Amino acid sequence: SEAQWGDLLFAWRVSKWVRSNAIVLARDLTTVGIGGCNPSRADGMGFALRKAGDRASGAMMASDAFLGYDDTVQTAIDAGIVGIIQPGGSDRDDEIIRLADAAGIPMVFTHRRHFRR
Question: Helix (H, G, I), strand (E, B), or coil: what is residue 62?
Fold first, then answer.
């Protein structure tokens, strides 16, 4: 929907300003959780979910760099995330796409990394 697209783009823009391995959760054009400067995106996702609490369900997720493993996507699905935007470019993109498709979650590929150090 238009609102979902707006939240995805908003989360993507915010992720540009978060340190590497950033995960941003957004809902209604508001940031509800941010996890950055972590050793992995899975760690960033955990931190963002803890910050978001109940507001994570129904939120959109942005990652500043590709999601190389399905753990972050599965965690997003389990938390009720309803859309993902990320650069893509992992050797495992096909696996991650299948996981998101099976859960009915749209995944947008930007083909552009933020990955701020």
Answer: strand
Question: For position 116, what pLDDT does the model report?
Answer: 62
Cα separation of 75 and 56, whole Å?
11
Whole-angstrom distance, CA of residue 31 vs CA of residue 25: 6
User: In angstroms, rounded to a whole number, what is the distance separating the alpha carbons of residues 48 and 33?
Assistant: 4
* CA–CA dist 18, 92 (Å, integer): 24
DSSP β-bridge partners for residue 63: 23
Cα angle 15, 20, 21; round to 5: 80
- DSSP state, 116? B
Q: Are 56 and 32 in contact (CB under 8 A)?
A: yes
18-58 per-position pLDDT tens digit = 988 899 999 999 999 999 887 788 899 999 999 999 999 99
Tens digit of each residue's pLDDT (9 = 90 or more) over 50-106: 999 999 999 999 999 899 888 999 999 999 999 999 999 999 999 999 999 999 999
Q: Residue 23: which H helix or E strand, with range? A: strand 23-27
